């Protein structure tokens, strides 16, 4: 049975507290799951972002150098994350537009998971039908592969030094999914979600008004299916 949306007061202190959001680019979390991030941070969950690229290809301006754009987008992401209550933002700085689910990327993510011990990981659904962006597919698949690797004693055993041990993530929430089975009521957080998106000026620019309307419209469509005003939908995996 689908999971009904939870009201803010239903998120209690006994829920898993550490959350890692893994995205391909700065702004992926704000477009994909920012309402839920805001709601969970307000409920006391400790949230960090891991961005696999810095979005250095995200412009059509020939006068804007990739390094300048990457620096700008990292600052935009930090500002948006702060607005949403995110504690930490990590950039792995892999090439934008050329991201691949390599063994090295899996190793990096497994190491982060083992050290930071998230109970929940939120990432992009790599299996969504007609997901055209290769970075999005690669990011979601790398995250899921790393979750598996992080719990195994004999995968990347060189990381298990000192008090570092394998770590088993309890839940995964896939956003931008075509097959949601879990919804969060984000009616309380829509203004904050829109505000966080405005931080990404290099991407939204002068189109924020129309974009805001589309974001609200989409949240209401999902909310209608979930039985609330505005919602975000996820494919939820429980281990």
Provide a short characterization of the protein structure.
This protein has 239 residues and is an alpha/beta fold. The protein has helices spanning 28-32, 34-42, 66-84, 103-116, 134-150, 190-198, 201-204, 208-226; strands at residues 18-23, 46-53, 88-94, 120-124, 171-175, 182-185, 231-238. Helix 3 packs antiparallel against helix 6 (190-198), helix 4 packs across helix 5 (134-150) and helix 6 packs antiparallel against helix 8 (208-226).
- Give the name of the CATH superfamily: LmbE-like
Mean pLDDT over all positions: 92
Task: Output the CATH topology.
Answer: Rossmann fold
Strand order of the largest sheet: 3-2-1-4-5-7-6
Shape: globular
Summarize the amount of helix as a percent range: 40-55%
**Helical element count?**
8
